[in-house]
Amino acid sequence: MKAEAVSAPRSKRGLRPVVQVAEPQVVGLTPQTTMMTERTDTMKTYLLREPKSVEPQSARGVLRTRPATASEVLGQAVQTKHGPVLFIGLDVHTDSIAVSLAAADGTEVRRYGLIGGTHDDVLPLAKKLLAAHPDTELRFCYEAGPHGYPLARCLQAHGYECILVAPSKIPRSPGDRVKTNRRDADQLARLYRAGELTAIYVPDPQDEAVRDLIRARYQVLKQQHRARQQLKMFLLRHNFRYAGTKAWTQKHLNYLATVKLPFPEQQFLFQEMVNVISEAGERLERYDAQLPRVIPGWRWEPVVKALMSLRGMAVLTAATLVAELGDLRRFASARQLMGYLGLVPSEDSTGDKRQQGGITKMGNGIARRALIEAAWNYRAPARLSRELLKRQEGLSKAVKDLSWAAQTRLHHRYQHLTRVKHKKSTVAAAALGRELSGFVWALGQLVQPYARKVEAVKPVAA
Prior knowledge:
Oligomer: single chain
Largest sheet: 5 strands, mixed
Shape: globular
Structural class: alpha/beta
Number of helices: 15
Low-confidence stretches: 1-7, 21-81
Strand order of the largest sheet: 3-2-1-4-5
Number of domains: 3
Order of helices and strands: HHEEEHEHEHHHHHHHEEHHHH
Mean pLDDT: 85
Helix content: 40-55%
Distance between the termini: 82 Å
Radius of gyration: 34 Å
């Protein structure tokens, strides 16, 4: 409501007279008046502070209150230490590659254009950039995708720095709804210069070959599991129930051989489902026979043998962990490896309230599954079986001691979680898998691989 106009003075209306307080004056400046008390106090503080605390004006007469950006700080640091650096973002596709350039000593990103999608197109690009920017270090980056590691290996073999970036680790604005090849290349170059990109591990070609073999076996295992589920649901839909306790044993297979459906079309479909499961089992047997043959001569053979000293880790589990995780020395601590495998608990905390949930399940799922499956073996008391003693032949005493410490600790941990804490066995197995990854990390630091073979670089015509 608007106050009504009053013509009588405040003293006659029974109100106290207003005391006028003189505003502080600053030499060379006019008095500042505001409507709000907080704004007046803030302006007084700014006007009355010491002149030394005020930043000097720039050449254009504007106060510089903005701090230096991350790109400026990174660019100055890189240029001071290594000289000029040119960050190059590549948006790689099958037939073309979008290229963007970001200098370390600037803030803008320049679009170079489109080039071919082969290595013979990227290497001449690097030579042209070196000719246009002499004494400049070139740093390439591109997103990990279906094109794999060959481009990064090619650039690294020719002396250029190149990193692969996981698409899930690239910062993206939620309101950015425009995506093009050139904009992606601009973003890669800009974020690479700002130091906001996280590089992924690039394995050697032989390491990648072993990993391909293990992942192919894992895919066949998933196909077999899915085919078994489809067959069980098909029989259940037609009211065929197996009276046994355990499926997919020899007794269960004999039962499937006696199943007869009322129509020939259904019988044909049933037989095809059984054939898919049988073929998947035969393929798994061939993979299991091939895997022990590739370990001898592999540069990670000493690490695989050291991991096989642990209980529940035969050649398949040990080779899976080494092939999926790569060099275990790249992890600074066991906690970092646990977080990489997604075995740490999730957390949703705010203020004084802390709430933890299940494991994050981030990172490599194949390695996480192998660890948790191996952790189930530590339910039994610690002991050295005949098979485990055979796997530990020829290993050092430090490796054997670490294997025995893992048995005693993890079994005690399982008993404590299930009997004292009353946790479910599945939750306890996940916790044991997390601690087992710590012993895997310790063995990776203790045992060294064979020396890496250096291959000659083939020259590429400009």
